[in-house]
Amino acid sequence: MPTLNAEAILENCLAAIARQNYPREQIEIILADAHSTDRTRDIAKKFGATVLDDHGKNMEEGKRLALQHATGEYVVFVDADNELTHADYFALAVDALARNPQALGLEAYYLTSPKMSSFCAYLTALLHISDPVCWLMSSNPKLVARDGEVERWTLPENTFSYPLGANGFVFRRADLQAVQANEKFQDTHVALFLMKNGQREWLRLRGHGVHHYYIQTLWKFVQKRRRATVHFLRVQEEMPVNWMKEKPPVPLWLAAFYCVTFFGPLWHALRGVYRDGDFRWLWHLLASPASVLGNAWGVWTYKRRGQDKSLIAELQVKQSLKGK
Fold first, then answer.
1. Alpha-carbon distances of 70 from 25, 52, 93, 141, 263, rounded to whole Å
2. Average pLDDT, 10 consecutive residues per value, the chain (324 residues)
3. Which CATH architecture has domain 2-314?
C-alpha cells in the first residue's frame, strides 16, 4: 500500500483488513509511505503494519518498494481509499486462485457504501474505472464461467484494452516475479504483461470487493484527474506501456470529443438510468467534461513542471469519507 498524508481514510482501510478471517499470522501489511506529515504512520503502526520510507517520485515506485519486501505467496494491492467489503475476501480469493491456476489474479468489484457520496458511487460502482474517458476506451470483459461465488472473466480476442490490477487486486507472487514486477511495477502493466504471456483470464468474487472512496465531489474529481494525468505521464517516461493503445473500442481523441458533446454523455446517462434504475448515472453529464478538463489541466501542469520531484505530493487531493 502506498500512502501520503492519508490519516482521514487509512484507519477505515486497515480496520477492514484487521476484520479478515484469514489467519492473522499469515498476513503482513506493508506500507510505502512518501514521508507523510500527518498521523498516517502512527495509524499504520497501530495496526501492526511495516512502514517503509518511500523516496520515489510517484505511487508506482512506492508499490514496487513494498512488493520487494513482501514474503507471502499471495499479494493484495490495496490503496488507502479502499475498504474491503467482506471479512472472507482474502480467504475466498486465495482459495479461488488455488483452484484456477490459469487465472492471472483476482479483481475486486467496486461496491457502494453509506460512507460515499452519490457522485463517488457513480464513479466507482457504476463506472468501475472512475473516469469517463478511460471507461469509454475500455473493452467490455466477457464472463467465461461461474462456479458458485467465483467468476472467470476474459477480454475479447485481439484486445488488451482494460485497466486491470489495482484496488484490492490479488496476485500470486510467483506470477509477479515472472514479469519482473519487483523491478518495473505499474499496476496495469503487470496484468497486461501476464495477459500477453497467455494468462488471459482473471477472477472476480460475486458481490465481493472493495468500497473505493476515490473522491467525494466533482471539483475534487477534476483535481484528482489532474494529478492522475501528471502521474501517468511520469510513468510513461520510465516505461512507455499503455493499455489505452492496445486496440481500445474508441481512440483517445474520440473519447475526449464524446465527453464534451453533451449528447453522448446524455445518451449513456439515460441508458444507465433505464437499465439500472439508478439516477446516479446522471452524474455522467457533469463528470464527462470534468474528466477532459482535469486531464487537460494535468497535461499543461506536466509540461510546465513535469520534472519537479515534489509535484505529485503537492497535487495530492485530500480524500475523505462522507460526512467527515
1. 14, 12, 18, 30, 48
2. 94 97 96 93 96 81 88 95 98 97 97 97 96 96 96 95 93 91 76 92 97 97 96 85 92 96 96 97 98 97 88 89 82
3. Alpha-Beta Complex (3.90)
